[in-house]
Amino acid sequence: MKERIVILGILALLILSAATPSPKRRVSPVTTQAAETQAINETRNDTSRINAKRRAEAGMHYVNSGGFTVYVDTVSGDEWIDSTARARLPKMEYPLWDAVSVGVNVWDPLMRAFGQKYGLFDAWAELSLHNRYKPVFEVGLGQASNTPSGMNFTYRSPLSVYFRIGANYNFLYNSNPDYSLYAGVRYGMSPFSYSIDNVTVDDGYWGETGRFDIPAQHSVAGWFEFCLGLRVKIWGPISAGWSFRFKSLLHESRARHGEPWYIPGFGTRGSSIGGSFSISYTLPIHRMNKVTAEDVLKSINDNLKATVSGEEPVDTTGVSQAADTTEIIE
Which domain holds residue 56? Predict the structure, then answer.
């Protein structure tokens, strides 16, 4: 009996010793230069973690062309793109291929009716992209014949062609397309010729007057224009537009006998301010009607109710046609 009790006691001690967890081994960290720089080296190329707190506290950020917020570290100059914070870019209310406009500038003909001695007319064509960006091409004819008051010669420039190419930016691109307020740039160029006729020279000694002509000379000139303009609808597809232009001569081929007084399309030498008044016709390529998804769903729901109740279906011709031919705006 005593032997059994001793054996049972020994077994109990063994079980208790096996069940008691052994103490964990503790390792004291060793602070070395390598340990201190390890975390920095591991995150050196991780732009989403480097100085994230400092970026947030600095508050320096901007929105890139993709609409994402970019935070800037004001100390290091590093940038971090926050892919979760995308800004809402302005929605284009009108399609890419929006409209084509053609027009005639009637400013010079009006001015010639009031005594202007140069200019003739020009026409232009414009393509509207999103009702926002508008490439423009202009072509015209210029001519001059002028005897300046008190001068002893007549300046003549025969009919010559000129071209302008550029673009306008419409600031009211998401508004009613019948109205536009724009700024634009142009490059103009004209090959032309000119002559100076009936030059008179008085000889005070002999008391005689001599006359001679400077023959036709040829030149090519190019210039830059910056313009501000306004265009409004006056009836149907017909619009009227005004623009003011600042012009600067860029290059000019040298003629043998002096510089030209008039350059077709540019105007008189030394004049940097000009204007235009145009009448234009606009042909819509695709004009988007603003039909919302709620309008379409409401019309479908009304028709279903009318069908179930046996009533006359609701007339939704306008909505259905608009939904078939235009994009539904969310």
Answer: 46-86
Task: Count the domains in the chain.
Answer: 3
Enter the DSSP assignment of 247: E
pLDDT digits (tens, 9 = 90+) for 240-281: 999 999 999 999 998 777 788 899 999 998 888 999 999 999
Task: Output the DSSP codes for 59-77.
Answer: --EEE-TTSEEEEE-TTT-
Edge to edge, the sheet with strand 68-72 lists 61-63, 68-72, 79-86
How many CB atoms are located within 10 Å of the residue 39 CB? 9
**Judgement on whether residues 68 and 116 belong to the same structural domain of the protein:** no
CA 102 to chain centroid, in Å, comes to 21
Mark whether 136 and 263 lie in a shared domain: yes
Q: Say yes or no: 278 and 309 in one domain.
A: no
Pinpoint the alpha helices (H) of 25-178.
33-42, 52-58, 107-113
Q: Which letter does DSSP use for residue 260 in this model?
A: -
Q: Which tokens sit at 184?
A: 């634009």
Answer yes or no: pTM beyond 0.90: no
Question: 167 and 129 in one domain?
Answer: yes
In a domain? residue 19: no
| Cα dihedral 129→135→137→138 (10° resolution) | 100
